[in-house]
Write a structure and sequence with these properties.
Layout (H helix, E strand, L loop, with lengths): L2 H13 L7 E3 L5 H8 L7 E2 L2 H7 L10 H14 L4 E4 L8 H13 L4 E4 L13 H18 L4 E6 L1 H4 L4 H13 L4 E4 L5 H10 L3 E5 L7 H7 L3 E3 L3 H18 L13
Parallel strand pairs: 1-8, 2-3, 3-4, 4-5, 5-6, 6-7, 7-8
Helix pairs in contact: 2-4, 5-6
Length: about 260
């Protein structure tokens, strides 16, 4: 994967983040899921989900994989498709700016066009990195891209509301600080209602992305409100495994063959 090719994919990925016409990314976790999703009509970019990748490797989410294994998993997915790939890079596998810069540089080298970087210290979404530390890490990720000549797309996760639904002011402050530090999009967890989404769009000085699930604000309405990106995280693995479990139960009970047994991959 050449730096020029990665830079072009990063530019493409950035161009797809349009308020009101959001990028919808169906999260993947290995080569086959990447290729299947990339082949679906209308799909223009992919995103990984660290939780799903961790489950596939038999470890817990929250940097259960070390950085070398995480990079190897990312590289496998990137090499499997021609589309831009945004990598869920957890906390950057580093606690400070210097380590983040080094690791994001390595992520660019394996061909990632974008990354998620989160601000929580643990799996429970609390406590969070202090804002100055997280701002320095996001600035370091941007610096890595600048040095490589790759405008890597930074989707900066804001976990304030996920840890404490009353922490609205902190969430907005963090989102704006992260955008000012070089993030392309503020990925705000906990925007569970139309009012929350509308308020975030109004108060955050840049593009906003959300995670969606079965009971979330409908996709069409998220677009109308001005969201720039929607992802689904490990819920896509859950969707896949639910279908697999249902099929296994039916086959074990000597039921009819599911038509999907003929799916060509």
């Amino acid at each position: 994967m050449s730096i020029q090719s990665t830079a072009e994919k990063a530019e493409t990925l950035r161009s797809l983040h349009v308020p009101g016409d959001p990028l919808i990314v169906t999260n993947v976790w290995d080569s086959i899921t990447a290729r299947i999703v990339a082949g679906a009509p209308g799909v223009r970019a992919l995103a990984t989900a660290s939780h799903s990748i961790s489950e596939a490797h038999g470890v817990e989410d929250g940097e259960g994989l070390d950085v070398d294994d995480a990079l190897a998993a990312a590289q496998l997915i990137v090499r499997s498709v021609d589309l831009p790939v945004s990598v869920d890079f957890e906390k950057g596998y580093a606690q400070d700016a210097a380590g983040t810069l080094d690791n994001v540089w390595r992520l660019i080298e394996v061909g990632a066009a974008g990354l998620n970087i989160e601000d929580s210290l643990g799996q429970a979404k609390a406590p969070l990195y202090d804002i100055d530390t997280q701002v320095s890490k996001i600035a370091a990720a941007r610096q890595a891209g600048d040095r490589a000549g790759v405008p890597i797309v930074i989707n900066a996760r804001v976990d304030s509301l996920a840890g404490d639904p009353s922490s609205w002011a902190d969430a907005v402050t963090r989102a704006n600080a992260y955008l000012a530090a070089g993030a392309d999009c503020a990925f705000v967890l906990g925007l569970s209602t139309e009012d929350h989404v509308a308020r975030a769009i109004d108060e955050i000085d840049g593009k906003v992305s959300v995670i969606a699930g079965a009971n979330s604000v409908p996709l069409a309405r998220l677009a109308e409100l001005g969201i720039s990106r929607v992802s689904f995280g490990p819920a896509i693995m859950g969707l896949t495994l639910s279908h697999l479990q249902d099929a296994a139960a039916g086959l074990t009970a000597r039921g009819t063959y599911p038509a999907e047994l003929g799916f060509a991959f």
